[in-house]
Write a structure and sequence with these properties.
Elements (H helix, E strand, L loop, with lengths): L21 H37 L103 E3 L1 H9 L14 E2 L38 E3 L14 H12 L5 H10 L6 H26 L4 E12 L6 E10 L7 E6 L5 H6 L5 E4 L21 E4 L2 H10 L5 H24 L3 H27 L7 H11 L1 H4 L13 H17 L1 E2 L2 H20 L3 H11 L13 H7 L13
Parallel strand pairs: 2-3, 4-7, 4-9, 7-8
Antiparallel strand pairs: 1-3, 4-5, 5-6
Helix pairs in contact: 3-14, 5-13, 7-8, 7-10, 8-9, 9-10
Length: 590
């Protein structure tokens, strides 16, 4: 491939090419100085972007500063002591000292199943070589070894037993107007379902006679009529007439959304175990699980929207068009409830337009902690009738701090000064967490200690804005902090608010890790399936619930659970109702 022709280089100027007029020469010098200054600024911006890219590719992801790297000219306010005075932390509780961990191998979990293998001597080996007497056992030396058994598939045969009264069956066959077929040919009714209405025939025929007991005093058309043949009821399955059981479906969900295994890799895993399944079949199973979990997912949404504060964030996910197979950029949003509503709910949208958050949060009232995405701005507008905002913005200080951290490459002194303020503010939050303050105690601490520090920080920012180029990395950091100032300090209004939105960002990292493996979603329905299933796996991770055990039990119970008892299947309530297992949950017979 040939490169486009480049423009010929400009020949250098010589002394003879310069004008003799002094005013013209001064004008040329000014223009050259402006050009050099602009190119220098562009060079600094490009160098800054290059360093950020190199840092993201090859450097560490942590934004922690080296405490041994001190500044020469730190202002006193930037290094304010972050340790709260004793009066502010009067509710501090005494924390026990950390115990020294014993050395050596850690004891294996008692919850693991154990298998004993005894090694004994034969009678010939137990004979004493001196006197010939039989040695007696005086003790056992015990050692433990951890072994692994690979997961296995099994086929569960559902055998529905049928029962019939031989006496009534013979009479039914011999009675005129009754079916003369064998008992095995009589239509079967489940014992738990009750008598079904008799089949109506358009023409009288012995072949279509009702299979009810001739000795019954009730009419065949009566609900109390006794059937000739009854059968046990098969439990309702997650997928009616489907092949997979709840344990296999739970394993499929956990493998993809917790262990981040794509379906083509799971296809090979099952093939090694002797089961040939296509990816399309696995996709259909996941979609069926999401459809079954949809009522419980809606219950999660209802509970989360009752929170006083929501944390939200979004990330990109590739969406494949069903017709053209072209990829577009869709979005997965996460909404984290507060500690009283500890669920994580995901939502899928085809774009990043503001319609997604507005639709999801249409009934929500409270605080919303998020980044400065413009799509949220309409949510913060006051209601025309009440003149009050239904949703109050709380900004993320981690975003603001990150911009100062990235500006270190262009203005190290000012950037480190801003980071010094944030170091003091975060030290206050750590001290409050270690003291285990109540919500009111944390609010009081922020009002007395954090707000004065924020005021000093604001004064410093205003002073630096007049001295820094607006388009420089530090200028952009200053502009971001000052434009979102009210939302950045709003966390000081209540003790249950957080200083940053890192909790939601951590949930997005789970999606980012999986996205590197499964790459894209195949349709909008697949995106909604992902949102439903990830909501449960993410909530289980937040609450410390074992996801396979939870999903295996819930998928088996959902088909028969009435709507007014769905709350019992929420992850935290399900875990509270479970007995403490002595062995890991598994299939019957293990």
């Amino acid at each position: 491939m040939s490169l486009p022709p480049s423009s010929p280089p400009t020949p250098p100027l010589t002394a003879d090419d310069l004008p003799d007029d002094v005013g013209t020469l001064k004008q040329m010098v000014l223009e050259l100085a402006q050009t050099v200054c602009q190119e220098r600024q562009d060079k600094e911006v490009l160098q800054h972007r290059l360093q950020l890219l190199v840092q993201r590719l090859y450097g560490r992801r942590s934004e922690r500063l080296d405490p041994n790297q001190r500044l020469l000219f730190d202002p006193p306010e930037a290094l304010a002591d972050a340790s709260p005075p004793p009066a502010a932390l009067s509710e501090e509780t005494s924390r026990p000292k950390r115990r020294c961990r014993p050395h050596g191998r850690r004891r294996l979990l008692e919850s693991l199943p154990r298998e004993s293998r005894h090694y004994a001597l034969s009678e010939a080996e137990r004979l004493c070589g001196c006197c010939g007497q039989l040695r007696v056992e005086i003790g056992v030396d015990k050692s433990e070894q951890l072994e692994y058994r690979p997961a296995s598939l099994r086929v569960i045969e559902h055998l529905i037993h049928k029962y019939a009264c031989p006496c009534c069956g013979r009479q039914a066959a011999a009675t005129p107007g009754r079916s003369a077929g064998a008992l095995g040919e009589v239509p079967v009714m489940s014992a738990a379902e009750g008598p079904a209405p008799p089949a109506q025939s358009p023409q009288p025929s012995n072949a279509n006679a009702e299979p009810y007991c001739p000795n019954s005093t009730a009419a065949p058309s009566s609900p109390s009529a006794t059937p000739v043949v009854v059968a046990a009821r098969k439990p309702a399955q997650p997928i009616p007439k489907g092949l997979p059981g709840p344990g296999l479906l739970a394993h499929l969900i956990v493998s993809k959304w917790v262990d981040h295994l794509p379906l083509h890799r799971l296809e090979r895993v099952y093939e090694r175990q002797g089961l040939v399944l296509s990816r399309s079949t696995l996709c259909d199973w996941l979609a069926a699980c999401a459809q079954l979990l949809q009522p419980l997912y809606q219950r999660l949404v209802e509970v989360v929207l009752q929170s006083r504060v929501l944390h939200t964030d979004d990330t990109t996910v590739k969406l494949q068009d069903v017709a053209t197979h072209q990829l577009s950029t869709a979005r997965l949003w996460v909404y984290l409830g507060d500690w009283a509503h500890p669920y994580n709910v995901f939502d899928f949208t085809r774009t990043r337009q503001r319609d997604g958050p507005q639709q999801f949060l249409r009934t929500y009232q409270g605080y919303l902690q998020a980044d400065a995405f413009s799509g949220y701005d309409a949510l913060y507008l006051p209601d025309p009738q009440t003149s009050q905002a239904r949703i109050v913005e709380v900004a993320c200080n981690a975003h603001a701090r990150r911009k100062f951290y990235e500006a270190r490459t262009s203005d190290v002194l000012r950037a480190h000064t801003a980071l010094g303020y944030y170091r003091s503010l975060y030290a206050l939050e750590r001290a409050a967490a270690e003291a285990e303050l109540t919500e009111e105690g944390k609010r009081q601490m922020r009002q007395e200690l954090a707000l004065p520090l924020w005021e000093q920080f604001h004064t410093w920012l205003e002073r630096q804005r007049a001295e820094v180029l607006p388009k420089s990395p530090l200028g952009e950091a200053l502009r971001y902090a000052l434009n979102n100032w009210s939302a950045l300090v709003r966390y000081t209004e209540a003790g249950y608010l957080a200083i940053d939105n890192n909790a939601a960002e951590r949930e997005m990292k789970r999606i980012a890790i999986g996205r590197k493996n499964w790459l894209f979603v195949g349709s909008p329905r697949g995106g909604q399936t992902a949102a439903v299933l990830v909501s449960f796996t993410s909530t289980c991770a937040r609450l410390g619930v074992e996801p396979w055990a939870y999903l295996q039990d819930v998928l088996g119970r959902l088909p028969t659970t009435p709507a007014d008892r769905l709350g019992e299947l929420l992850p935290d309530r399900w875990q509270a109702a479970q007995p403490r297992p002595s062995v890991p949950p598994g299939l019957p017979g293990e």
